Amino acid sequence: MSRQRQRDHWLARPENIRRIWRGFWAVLALTVAAQFFIPVKGHFVVDGWPAFGAIFGFFSCLAMVVAAKALGYSLKREEDYYLEGGYLEDREQQDA
Amino acid sequence: MPEYLPPAVILIVAALLIGPTRGHVRSAIVLLAPLATLWAIWQVPNGVVLTVPFLDYQIEPVEGSEVRRLFATIFAIMAFAGGLFSFRQARWYELAAANAYAAGAVGVSFAGDLITLFLFWELMALFSTVIVWAGGTPAARAAGIRYAVMHLVGGVILKVGIEGTVVHTGSIDIMPVLATNFDTWMMLIGILINAAAPPVSAWLADAYPESSPTGSVFLSAFTTKTAVLALILLFPGEPVLIWVGIYMVMYGIIYALLENDARRILAYSIVNQVGFMVCAVGIGTQMALNGAAAHAFAHIIYKALLFMSAGVVVYRTGKSRCTDLGGLFRTMPLTTVCGIIGALAISSFPLTSGFTTKSMISDAAASEHLVVVWYLLAAASAGVFLHAGIKFPWFVFFQKDSGLRPKDAPWNMGAAMVLFAVLCIGLGIYPQPLYELLPYPVDYVPYKAGKVLFYLQLLLFSGLAFFLLLPLMQRTRTISLDTDWIWRVALYRVAYGVGAAAREAGDLLAGAVDRIRGDIARYGRRHLGAGETGEDRGVFAQAWPIGLTALWIAVLLIAYVVVYLL
Amino acid sequence: MSGQATILAALAAPLAGAIGILLAGRLSANLRETVTLVTAVILAVVVWSLIPELMAGGRPALSVAEVVPGIEIAFRVEPLGMLFAALASGLWIINSIYSIGYMRGNNEANQTRFYFFFAISLAAAMGVAFAANLFTLFLFYEALTLSTYPLVSHKGDEKTIRSARVYLGILLTTSIGLFLPAIVWTYMAAGTGDFTPGGILEGNLEGPLIGLLLGLFVFGVGKAAVMPVHRWLPAAMVAPTPVSALLHAVAVVKAGVFTITKLIVYIFGVDYLFAQPSGQWLLYAAAFTIVAASAVALRQTNIKRLLAYSTVSQLSYVVLAADILKPLAEVGAAIHMVAHAFGKITLFFAAGAIYTAARKTEIGQLAGIGRRMPWTMAAFTIGAFSMIGVPPTGGFVSKWYILAGAFEADNYVAIFTMIASTALNALYFLPIIYLAWFGREPEGAQEHGEAPFPAVLALTATAALTVLFFFFNGPVIALERQLIEVWE
């Protein structure tokens, strides 16, 4: 119902997106900085180090995204991969 | 006359009444029956309260305890919220099946012995299949049949384990055991099939997305969580579960990252989350089991919330693939916010129910000095935020402008979502009521400044990773192969080949038999004369004339008599 | 009435009824149907009156004639036979009600002939059930084959007669070529053919000869449809459905597996056979039949042929259970005869109802039929669940006992066969259930309603029995447990 001329939703406007990103970076920096004031007790030594949560989180995600991408090369198939020839599909055609 | 009716009966009666009733009466049944069941659940005291003779045993359909009441409670709440979400949009048979399905879950919760557990287990399998089929599409039909076969086979494997245990130990009681012999292994495998543990997890992502927008909400809750309860009751501390759980966690993340369909992403996410619970059961300490139970409780709520938001999207747009969606926040603010709350909860963001429950499991691992497990669970928490916490809401509601401008949720769907969203936040801020319901005493304090900070770092930087790596995660119109390829493709081809070979052999044999028969018949006709001899025709038609038969009888009887007299 | 008189009455009643049917048939159809029903009720009453005595441990016996010194026609009622006779006589009543609806609904010709041979077949079945020795059993077994032939070939057209010939040919060839020699051999080896608790072959025959004799018996009893002597069953599907229901639930196939079970318990002896390695092959033959027949069923598009192969598979459950050779498994074999009977007769009744109401015979035609024929398809669904073994149906109970028996013997072949066959059964029944309830009728489909009332009544009754057997099976189990006490 909104015409192209009208301004888009406030979340979609480019200037707001930039603002959100800046805010995000600020919060990230804050969480790392806060570790100087709030001690993080580590269960296993390493996890008490400064910014461990941040680094571990970031790089685990990186690893997982890369691993998924790699596995995707062998696992991915077209959407309708299963639709030809299988007992149930044959049965459906027989029965239809 | 039993003093305590199994609470599940209320839901079964409701299921039976939904069909014949209409309009407001039907709606009232759908909404009130779960509440009545909730009341009944809280009347059940600890211990065995009902015994009934069945076959050669005295089965115990109702046995109460803290953890059983906890699970039954959340199942009843789920039935209510699901009913609220669906009662104006779903078909009557889906609602009826949902009530029967919930009845099965509540029945399993209170099952005092293995036989009762199995009977309600099968009830769940049957009616969840109906819910899958209620999706109405050919894909739903096929997925439902695969689902049913998988669950019936899982059921019979469980039954084999139970019967072996019963025959060898003489007891039908539900007691903690370890997987040490054939019987206990079969029970474990049967339960793990329902828990969607790889390599037998494909059924979940195969079937759940094919159900209707309302059906998937019900499906997300019961089957896997009753399996978790069964593990808590039967296999606490079984070490193999730790690694099965970790594998499930990683499997869920990877497959969810590859997936395009929004509801399938959530389905893989179920496997991921249940993996946390399974791992916790494997750790087996009091804190771990508390964690598993608390996590199950919270998970049902926020997973249902996620499926509800996805369900609204499918209901309003008819689309479920990330490649087709995006930018829906403009016209569906309520759904978006509820979806985000669910996503934050599943990621264990502080101030949500996920934070106050799932972190117990990590702490339990730490207490047991399971270093590798702890690190993997931490990485997994990051991964959850990645694949469900951000990916799901981002691709569905934001991402790009897909041009779709659907209306927001209908009032009843909105109400159900708000209810669960409030619970997610509520249990995040004030988890005490939940802690009181846990099986073991809780001396766990979730909101320690250090821990909150650690998780905030973990999660927020995972979020950063997501947005920075977005180009690597573009959605494609694909599916990912899973172990079910083995029986959907490989086994079928093998069976087909065997069948073709058998038919070849059969034809050759038939030809040979025909020739031999022709010779014998000609011989018979020439030398033994009378009797009706039709033309030799057809396959395997060894048509001996009746006269010939009578002659043979006489000959053999006389032969016997002669031999006897000798 | 004394036990002996009762046995005689059980044989005489259906024969007398047959004559009555012939006579009444000349007068009026309704009179004839009444005679059938009355005869069925009388038979059931007579047979069931034996139950209290059996439960108390009694074994009524009757000796009729000595044909040749050492060989007599004699009867003796024991738990297995009691079960078979009670099942057959009880279900005959329901089957007759169904037949009325079916035969009239389809305007079948030669109905008098139909009811006449039906009654004779029941008499033969009673003879098989109560036989006290191999000779008597063989006589009535053959009589059953011959009396069911006119029923199978009822339709009279060329295709039907050809299939009926296959039926007759296989059954007669196996019984005369394999069963009879086996009987003769048994008499020679043991000096008697009497069914004796604990068996008669111990000490008289051993080693590989046992395996051979077992083979002659198992393949000679073609009615048990162990592969490869099973082809007569799908061939017999040309019969009108009440006949298929009779063949596949009540008389013929149950006579087959009943005979094999009885042979194992009373001729070979369970413990003796368990100790004979040469008898092990039967386990594998039965397991193979269970799986292979289900695999063939997967490919069927005709409803009755699918049910026929399902029956071949289910019959071998009884054979498998009997050959596990442990107490609970023998009980399971007996119970499965009952559970399968209830479930299969329901399925066949439903198939016949669909044919009568809608003239449909292929699975593919069943789209959406659940909405037009809800009672029929509900009964079909229950029957299907019983075949798969899902609670709350009778099939669950029997499979429970068979599995328990398998564990008593640590028989993993049996256990895994049960798992595999559950999957296969689900694979061929579920598409039908889906199609009937969730499928959409094609455009311009012919309108039709439920089947004639007597047919619907009958199938509802047997579906109810299938479910009730899940809850109320105590007396049957108690009766069959006496089988175990027999040799303990």
Structure summary:
The complex is a heterotrimer of chains A (96), B (566) and C (488). Chain A is mainly α. In chain A, 56% of the residues lie in helices and 3% in strands.
Task: Walk me through the structure.
The complex is a heterotrimer of chains A (96), B (566) and C (488). Chain A is flat. Chain A has helices at residues 14-34, 52-75, 87-95, and one strand spanning 76-78. Chain A is 56% helix and 3% strand. Chain A is built from three helices and one strand; from the N terminus they run ααβα. The longest helix of chain B is centred in the C-terminal third of the chain and has 44 residues, at 485-528. Chain B has helices at 8-18, 23-41, 66-86, 92-110, 114-133, 138-169, 182-194, 202-207, 215-219, 222-234, 240-258, 262-283, 286-317, 333-346, 353-367, 371-397, 411-429, 432-437, 449-468, 485-528, 546-565, and strands at residues 47-54, 57-64, 478-480. Chain B has a two-stranded antiparallel sheet with strand order 1-2. Chain B is mainly alpha-helical. By secondary structure, chain C is mostly helical. Chain C contains 21 helices and two strands. Chain C has helices at residues 3-27, 29-48, 51-55, 79-105, 111-130, 134-152, 158-190, 208-220, 232-235, 241-250, 252-268, 270-274, 281-298, 303-324, 327-358, 369-372, 374-388, 394-408, 412-438, 453-471, 474-487; strands spanning 61-68, 71-76. Chain C has a two-stranded antiparallel sheet with strand order 1-2. In chain C, strand 1 (61-68) and strand 2 form a beta hairpin. The radius of gyration of chain C is 21 Å and the shape is globular. Chains in contact: A-B, A-C, B-C. At the A-B interface, helix 1, helix 2, strand 1 and helix 3 of A face helix 6, helix 11, helix 16, helix 19 and strand 3 of B. Strand 1 of chain A pairs antiparallel with strand 3 of chain B, so a sheet runs across the interface.
Oligomer: heterotrimer
Average predicted confidence as pLDDT of chain B: 88
The dominant shape of chain B is globular
The total of beta strands of chain C comes to 2
Poorly predicted residue ranges of chain C: none
Distance between the termini of chain C: 31 Å
Taking the alpha carbons of the first and last residues of chain B, their distance comes to 71 Å
Secondary-structure element sequence of chain B? HHEEHHHHHHHHHHHHHHHHHEHH
Biggest contact: A-B, 53 and 55 residues
Uncertain stretches of chain B: 530-544
**Largest β-sheet summary of chain B:** 2 strands, antiparallel
